[in-house]
């Protein structure tokens, strides 16, 4: 499923135009993303939690250059599915 | 760390974008619903510039209960994975940090042989850059070359500065030359203008000669060179006066004349070439002239094309509707085949019409297998002739197109020998079994301007019978209000008269109305129950039959309407 399909379904379900559905979707995703940028978590009921975690700095080695490098700390986004979603998805099986 | 929940997030959206909070909460709920359903359906949901939710199957494995030490099988399960898109990553970390080389390792890599030398060099010269250090290291090995090596580096910087100065001087010299030459050009151009004013009465050819003489003169060539130089250096140089611009533009104008003439000559050659190629009739000429000529040819064509299309339509109509073909139509078909065969490719019936066309001279029975069927068919068809006449007479009433077909069929009936395939025989049999068939089943390819309403009006007289078509094709047709061009649908048979429908027809039409209701209900149309009126009118039993599918509010609305 892609964004266009999501927008189509939203417009059918909520009786709104596709343009409006797209706008609202962008607003919601923007707010989630900006909150993640501020390192705060967004928890949606029956879905999961969006957040950011910082990785610890670590040493790396590039075999091509035969040198050691320092990988500094980074911010990485994560999504943790809620228990409800895990149960909801249980019936799914790969083809 | 802040933690936002559903309501706080919705409030923030409402505050930031000035949207209705109640609607937004409904929206976010619907969005999450759709994402969940998409996960189950497709296994992944991709949101543009945000990320992808994916389901990954974790295999079953053997595990150990740490508290008891008991071995047990952990069964396979899906796991929700979110992989962030680049847009999201950029928001979270606009400037991602890069790898930093470790300083400790750099000293380790230096070999011990050079290390003391480096230390010595550092003690001598502390604040010099690395390049000088390297040189000094080398000089220890070859002291004789010290001066030679150091000198070029010292010369390099002043050299570049002197070069720039030289350039500036050169530019200044050239500008001086330009000024002098411009004065010359002004004088010459004024003379030329005066000459031109005097020579206005003379012939054009003489003017051209004067111009060519003027162009060949060495002064103009110099001006050209200078103008080019000026063009390239216009950015760096100071603002040029209006006179300079005028001079340069004049020079360019003069310069452009021979070029255009040359291009014209090249064009002529190309035209000649194109003429040659057009004689050879190459299929793919990309030159403009060839395309134009083709357009002209094609503009003459449409009358033939339309005529051919009409003939084709009639032929296909014959195939679907008629049960036999005449010998008289064969030459027409042959002619159209030769002229515009590409029109036929769209219609699959082309080859079949050719097969069906039979000349009177040819002996009809060619293969042994078909002997029995052909002989029996002749008799059956002969019996069914009068019935079909009646049907055609009835069919002629609604529209003019049908009357045309009838006209052709009258010609058809004059033929002596009639041969039909087994499928057509079945159709005839079925038609004869149903005594009063008003409209026989037929395929129809939707064209521009077609709608179910119009088709029903055309073929079934009453446009309110359009669900009769919809129920037969409801799997092909998504939206009954907007059918798609080019799709092949079947127009089902209407067994009774339009004014006096049989029970079967009524049930079919009621089913069509019911499908229409379901479609609008699925779309969330609040007035979907209007189509239930049709169900009630044509076959009220269906309302009871599909009691569970129809919502109660709609039934009550229907009752209110009927009152």
Compact summary:
The complex is a heterodimer of chains A (95) and B (563). Chain A has 95 residues and is α+β, with helices and mostly antiparallel strands.
Give your account of this protein's structure.
The complex is a heterodimer of chains A (95) and B (563). Chain A is an alpha+beta fold and 95 residues long. Helix content of chain A is 41%, strand content 32%. In chain A, the strands form two sheets. A three-stranded antiparallel β-sheet of chain A has the order 1-2-5. In chain A, strand 3 and strand 4 form a beta hairpin. The longest helix of chain A is centred in the N-terminal third of the chain and has 20 residues. Chain A is elongated, with a radius of gyration of 19 Å. Chain A starts with a helix and ends in a 6-residue tail after the last helix. Chain B is mostly helical. Chain B has 23 helices and nine strands. In chain B, a hairpin with a 3-residue loop joins strand 2 and strand 3. In chain B, helix 15 runs antiparallel to helix 16 and helix 20 packs antiparallel against helix 21. The longest helix of chain B is centred in the first third of the chain and has 53 residues. The chains are: A alpha+beta (95), B mainly alpha (563). Chains A and B meet through helix 1, helix 2, strand 1, strand 3 and strand 4 of A and strand 1, helix 1, helix 2, strand 2 and strand 3 of B. Strand 4 of chain A pairs antiparallel with strand 7 of chain B.
Jot down its keywords.
heterodimer; A: alpha+beta; 3 helices; B: 563 residues; mainly alpha; three-stranded antiparallel sheet; 9 strands; flat
């Amino acid at each position: 499923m892609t964004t266009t399909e999501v927008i189509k379904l939203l417009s059918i379900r909520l009786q709104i135009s596709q343009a409006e559905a797209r706008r609202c979707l962008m607003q919601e995703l923007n707010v989630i993303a900006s909150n993640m940028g501020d390192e705060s978590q967004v928890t949606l009921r029956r879905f999961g939690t969006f957040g950011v975690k910082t990785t610890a700095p670590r040493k790396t080695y590039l075999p091509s250059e035969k040198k050691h490098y320092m990988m500094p700390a980074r911010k990485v986004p994560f999504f943790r599915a809620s228990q409800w979603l895990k149960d909801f998805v249980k019936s799914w099986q790969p083809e | 760390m802040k933690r936002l929940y559903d309501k706080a997030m919705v409030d923030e959206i409402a505050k930031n974008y000035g949207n209705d909070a109640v609607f937004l909460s409904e929206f976010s709920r619907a969005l999450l619903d759709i994402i969940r359903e998409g996960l189950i359906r497709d296994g992944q949901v991709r949101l543009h510039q945000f990320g992808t939710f994916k389901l990954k199957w974790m295999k079953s494995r053997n595990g150990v209960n740490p508290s008891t030490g008991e071995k047990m099988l952990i069964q396979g399960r899906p796991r929700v994975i979110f992989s962030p898109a680049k847009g999201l990553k950029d928001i979270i970390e606009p400037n991602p940090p890069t790898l930093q080389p470790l300083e400790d390792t750099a000293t380790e890599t230096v070999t011990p042989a050079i290390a003391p030398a480096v230390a010595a060099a550092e003690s001598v010269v502390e604040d010099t850059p690395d390049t000088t250090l390297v040189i000094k290291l080398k000089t220890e090995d070859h002291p004789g070359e010290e001066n030679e090596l150091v000198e070029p580096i010292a010369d390099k910087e002043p050299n570049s500065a002197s070069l720039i100065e030289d350039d500036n001087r050169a530019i200044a010299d050239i500008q001086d030359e330009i000024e002098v030459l411009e004065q010359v050009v002004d004088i010459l151009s004024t003379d030329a203008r005066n000459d031109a004013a005097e020579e206005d009465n003379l012939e054009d050819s003489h003017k051209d000669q004067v111009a060519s003489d003027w162009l060949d003169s060495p002064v103009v060539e110099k001006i050209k060179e200078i103008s080019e130089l000026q063009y390239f250096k216009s950015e760096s140089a100071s603002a040029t006066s209006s006179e300079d611009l005028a001079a340069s533009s004049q020079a360019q104008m003069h310069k452009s004349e021979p070029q255009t003439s040359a291009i014209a000559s090249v064009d002529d050659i190309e035209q000649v070439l194109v003429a040659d190629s057009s004689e050879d009739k190459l299929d793919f000429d990309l030159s403009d002239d060839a395309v134009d000529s083709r357009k002209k040819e094609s503009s003459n064509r449409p009358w033939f094309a339309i005529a051919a299309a009409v003939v084709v339509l009639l032929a296909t109509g014959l195939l679907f509707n008629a049960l036999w073909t005449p010998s008289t139509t064969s030459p027409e078909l042959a002619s159209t085949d030769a002229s515009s065969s590409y029109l036929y490719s769209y219609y699959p019936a082309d080859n079949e019409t050719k097969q069906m066309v039979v000349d009177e001279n040819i002996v009809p029975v060619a293969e042994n297998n078909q002997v029995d069927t052909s002989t029996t068919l002749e008799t059956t068809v002969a019996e069914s002739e009068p019935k079909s006449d009646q049907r055609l007479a009835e069919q002629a009433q609604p529209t003019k197109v049908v009357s045309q077909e009838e006209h052709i069929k009258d010609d058809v009936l004059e033929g002596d020998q009639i041969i039909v395939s087994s499928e057509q025989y079945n159709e005839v049999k079925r038609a004869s079994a149903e005594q009063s068939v008003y409209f026989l089943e037929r395929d129809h390819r939707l064209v521009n301007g077609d709608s179910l309403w119009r088709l029903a009006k055309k073929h079934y007289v009453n446009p309110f019978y359009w669900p009769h078509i919809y129920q037969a094709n409801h799997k092909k047709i998504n939206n009954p209000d907007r059918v798609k061009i080019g799709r092949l649908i079947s127009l089902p048979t209407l067994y009774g008269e339009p004014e006096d429908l049989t029970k079967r027809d009524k049930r079919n039409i009621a089913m069509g109305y019911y499908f229409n209701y379901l479609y609008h209900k699925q779309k969330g149309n609040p007035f979907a129950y209007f189509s239930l009126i049709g169900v009630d009118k044509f076959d009220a039993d269906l309302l009871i039959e599909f009691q569970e599918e129809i919502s109660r509010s709609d039934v009550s609305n229907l009752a209110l309407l009927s009152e």
